[in-house]
Design a protein that fits this description.
Helix content is about 50%, strand content about 25%. The termini are far apart. It has three helices and five strands, in the order H-E-E-E-E-H-H-E.
Amino acid sequence: MKKEEKIKELEKQIKELKKEVQEEEMEQWFKSLLNGLEIVIYDDRPDSVYYKKNGIYMFKLYIDPNNKEKRHFYCNYELVGKILLNKYNLNEYEIQKFVSDMVERYLKLIKVIPLFG
């Protein structure tokens, strides 16, 4: 194997390792957001579940009363979306996939559509 090929292979391995480290860091960060959440359901909004932390709305789950399969999971843009966009350099698809995976894994909510507001 030529030196150039070895260098390219090593660069590829380094890139993959960096990605793994970033994914682990993102997961730990997201889990820290979930720690200490207070779940709030208002009588006048029975189709919404609010997740608050230290008095701040972090997330909201909205289940369409006409179509229970339609589940929107709103994230606080400033405290979630902006971090994933700027700190972790994720694109919109990657952000939605990541949030969807984390919500399914840790909140046991399946088939949610992540939105930011």
